[in-house]
Structures are given as structure tokens and as C-alpha cells.
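hey m, so remember when u said the C-alpha cells were messed up on ur end? i reran from scratch. heres the input so u can diff it against urs
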Amino acid sequence: FGFSGTSMKRKLDHGPDGRPFPSGKKHFLCCSPSGLVQATPTTFGDLRLANGHSAQRRRVTSGPPPSGLQDWLHTFQMWSGPERLLALDELIDRCETNQVKHMMQVIEPQFQRDFISLLPKELALYVLTFLAPRDLLQAAQTCRYWRILAEDNLLWREKCREEGISECVSSRRRPSGAAVSAWKSTYIRQHRIETNWRKGDTREPMVLKGHDDHVITCLQFSGDLIVSGSDDNTLKVWSAITGKCLRTLTGHTGGVWCSQMAATTVISGSTDRTLRVWDAESGECVHTLYGHTSTVRCMHLNGNRVVSGSRDTTLRLWDVSTGRCEHVLTGHVAAVRCVQYDGRRVVSGGYDYMVKVWDPETEVCLHTLQGHTNRVYSLQFDGAFVVSGSLDTSIKVWDAETGGCVHTLTGHQSLTSGMELRDNILVSGNADSTVRVWDIRTGQCLHTLQGPNKHQSAVTCLQFCRGLVLSSSDDGTVKLWDLRTGAWLRDVVALQSRGSGGVVWRIRASDTRLVCAAGSRNGTEETKLLVLDFDLDEKKKETD
């Protein structure tokens, strides 16, 4: 980390000559700290003010001053500024090399004053807020006082806020007796984790084998617990730390097709037409929810209520704590394939080509969003906009309040099976093997994630956050992309049977871990979970 090329800006009320700027106007003075970091250690912290002036410099003491010097200096002081400059030019022209060198040695330190040490601490900290984090790390090496300032906890909290880091690293993760601020440790740790993601610095993934040769149909990840659901009628709870299967949740009499998880509560939906509520820590089935008359195909949990959608064309709103069905929503004329619930409105998509917006409390359909010409497979809903993906290759953006179609996003060539929406950025995965990044406010496609390193088969799952996009595919890989540029960064996972039957069905990621559900449909790859940990420092890597 270095200062080179970095500048910081300070708002000043006065110009460099001490005169105030015109009333009502403030100018920016750019001060480049690049000149403050030298190849040899500086002694800025030793500079002090004496009677309002800088410390006295060391003078030449080779002998008595020449006669007439005081008269010459008096005359020099009487001249105007331009006259003094002219006199100095003439003087330099008449100097020998060693005399010019002496001038440089005298003058140069005058431009290396430690202005930070001369400011009140509060103002000095304010100035340092304009430095980039990497430059703060370099500034801490300048002198003891700068190090004290650059370690300020509130200063690093602001840097974390600028980077979207809202939680401070726990004290147990910091070395005992460490003087480093908690927020600085948090920032450095987050930077290390992101570097590990981008460059692949991690230990070999843990392999969690289970579900025999069945398909893993759904995957959840919360805290240190992983829950996988399969068409073998079971769910399994795993430790993300040890990789051990903690318990197997049995009770369904048909394949598990969907699940949701919050803390240690798991809800599953099955072809046996029921939902089950589980305690992941004990393995107990807390409630079995009866009511649907066909396969429970989708669900969405919000708080202690979950909405389920079924092939029986209905949706049901359940209270997870009591197991009671509170409302039934009818109106679709074919299977309900996807659902979203924000706690106030329910949005559903079905095989009848329709998207519906519901008030679940009154069981009234507020809007039927018509426009797709084939089955609706995927939905996103942020309270203001509904985004629907269909087998007709299009993605539509709807106004949730009016029901109007705002944009039709075209470009994909097949089924959009998965999407994720954050603010105005939508990322979609398609069976055409591509991932696209959209701005739903403008309807513009920002990037198509393809090229020589693109997926070779249908995209099965995706996730994005903090400037990175993860996508999995039927081709047996998980790829990492840069959200801002659309560039492929690397293959995070590549199965040995990739391209010959290996499939990554599902992925779930936190800031520090990636969980992949993988297998094959032709026996070339055994069914398993892969867990990758990116929260590794150099010491941990060396001990692996």
C-alpha cells in the first residue's frame, strides 16, 4: 500500500497566503501526501512550533559573518517581491555547486513540515478521513503520532461504512492485547476475504457426502448450518465448520422440492403435498402443514409466516409458530411455480403465463400481470417492482402498485430460471448458458457474462453481492464474475466430470463461505456438497 498518486482535499477558509477567500466562497486546496513518504524514515513527529514559528534550523558556523552582510540583508528586505526574486536569480548564477547544494539542504525541509502534528487532533482526524484506507495504512508508518491518529477506531468505522461494512469483527477474532482498532481489523479482514474470493486463495474444499446418488433439489445456509433437501424424501443438516452431517430430517413421504430457513428454523415442501417445520438443532419436526392437494413447488418465508405455492394452483399463507393456515389464495388456473412475499404483498407466477399480486389478508388479487406468452419460472419483488422471468425468453419489469409493465428485457434465448435483484440491479441466469446484468430502472442490459470462459450449458443458480456474481451450471462449474465490468474472474469450482455429466445444482454463499450442491444425472459424479472457506489469513493457509 502506498501514497503514490493519491491526493486529498481539504476545505479551507483562507488561501495559502493567509488572506481570506471572498465571502461565501470556499476553495479546495489539494495537498498530495506523496511527498511525505520517503525512502528513509522521516522525523516529522519531532518538529515543533516555537513562539508561533517553526523550529530553528541548524546554521553554518564556519566563521564570523562577512562585513557588509547586515547592510546587504537590510537592502534585500527593502526591495519588492519581484526585486528579491531577481536578486536571488543573480545570486544563484554566481554560486558554486557546493553552495547550491547547501541551499537545497536548507530549503527542502521547509516544504516537509508535518502539518498534521500542528493541527488539533479533531481537525487532524478530519483531514485523514479524506485518505483512502490503503493510504491510511501507509500513513501509520510515518511516525508515532501519525500512527496513533491512523489507528483511530472511529476513523476506521467511517472507512468501513464507505465500503458497506456494517458489522465490526468480534473481539475474539483479534489477537489478545492487540492495539489495532476493532474497525481497522474489520476492514483488513474484509479486504483479505475479498482478495481470497478473487484470487482463489483458500484451502481445498470440504466434501460432504450424502443423499446417495439422488438429486439435491434445494439448499439453505444460515450461520454455521447447511441444510440440503433431496428427492430421496429427506433433508440433512450439516456443520459448515466440520463438514459433519449433524442429523437427517425424515418424515416426508415424497421428494423434497423446496425449502426456506431462518436461524435454526427450516421449512420444507414436498411432493407428498405437505410442508414441514423443523428445528435444525434438535432435528424435531415441529409442525406438519396440511392443505395442499398436490406437490408443494415453491415457498417464501418472511418473519414467522411462509407462503407456499402448489401444483394445485393455490397459494397458502401459514403461521410457522402455530402451524395454522391463515389464508388461501385462489385464481391461478395452472401450477404455481414461484412466489415472493415481503410481509405485506404476495406475488406469484404460474404455468398459466400469469403473474399475480395479492393482498393476503383479504385474499384479494390486486393485479393480474399479463404479457408473458409462456410459463413463468422465476420472480423477484422488492416492494415497488415485480420482475418475472419466463420460458418465452423475456424478463418483464412491472410496477407493483399499478400493475403496469415498465420494461420488457430481451436478449436471453431460453428459459430464465433464476434471478436476483438488489436496488436497481438485476442479475438473471438462463438456460442459454449466459448470465445478464440489467438496470431495471432504464431497462438496459449492462453486461452479458459470456466470452471464451462462459458456461457451456444451462445456468442453474446464481447469487451476487459486494461487486461479485457467482453462477453455477449444468456444465459442472461455478464461475466468478466482476459485477461492475462483466469480466470473468475465475472458475471457483470445476468438477472432475465437468462437460461429461457433472452438474452443480445449487449454490449458497455468505461473505466468507461458498456451499455448492453437486452431482450428475449419469453417474459420473457422486452427489455431494462442497464447502469453501475464504476467511483464511496467511497463518491459517500455512498450517493446512
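this time it looks ok to me. The longest strand covers residues 502-509. if urs says something different then somethings off w ur setup not the seq
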